[in-house]
Structures are given as C-alpha cells and as structure tokens.
Amino acid sequence: MKRLVFGLVAFLLFGCAPQQTDASAPSVDSSMPKPASLPDLGPAPELTNNIWLNVDAPLRLADLRGKVVIVEMWTFGCINCQNVMPSLKGWHAKYKDQGLVIIGNHYPEFSYEEDLDNLKEAIARFDIQYPVAQDNDGATWRAYKNHYWPALFLIDKQGHIRYIHAGEGRYQQIEENIQALLEETY
To answer: H or E element: which one contains 86?
Structure first.
C-alpha cells in the first residue's frame, strides 16, 4: 500500500510537470495543411473497366492523381447499397468541385444486374450523377480483394488507399476522412 501511495505522489509531482521546450526545435505552422492520420494501405489497383456510364471515356486512377477518389463497390439490387447512395450523392455534390471523384464500380450479385440496360435504368432511377463502371467479370472487385456490397475505398491524391469501409454507416467518419484527404497537399 505504501508503494502505491508513493507511486501516486511521485506521478503527481513529476509525471504531470510541464515539459521543457527545446528552443531549437522547429515550430509548426498551424495554417499549413496536415496529413490525415489515416494509414497508407498501399497503392490502389488501377481501374481496367471498359464500360462506363456518366462519363465520356473510361477513367483511370493514374489520370486522377491530385484528386481524392472513392471507389464504391456496389450492385443496384442490394438494399444496403441503396441506403449508402444518399451519402455518396451528397458528398459528390458537396466536394466534386474541391477535387473528390466518386466512382461506382458495379459488380452484379444476380444475373439481372449484369444487363447493361438494367444498370442504366437503375442509375437513372436512383439519379446517380457520378461515374459508374460496369464490372461484370469482377476484375476490379477482385483487384481490390473485396468481398462486400457496399464497400468504399478512399484513395488519396497520390493514388494510395487510405481508408476502407464495408457496409452501411460511419457516414460522419467517412466525410471527415474525405475532408482530411482533400486538405492534404499533392
């Protein structure tokens, strides 16, 4: 018991003492953008899809350097994917002019979702304005080692995956991560 009391007194006297500052240490400019505290999960696999909707030509991540990209793995018949759409559409509207690009990678779960006309109808019905790639062969799905609908891969301006989220929810956290990556310098 004496050791516990002695340890507590020592902690209060010395553990909470203000640290001396080193005058030679560089100062941090609080106005400078700070890197997001998200881990670097490695380079994002390139997009190789041939069929794209809502854009004039296929998108490639190499051409999107300097932008923050969300690759969303989805299929239009999935209710969980439908529940994520309002957030994605909101982020697209709010951040597209600040450098956010959302890409819906449509990998079908059922055969009727493979039909391009059905996909086009779903995009119109859900009023999706951001680019959508058809991934019927699952090449992009597999390249990202994905197993879930929906899944979001947040990619930084250098083309590295910095955040992955499977399923619904955590919308505020995802938006904060989008904001942090948009603030990073390229």
So the answer is: helix 79-95
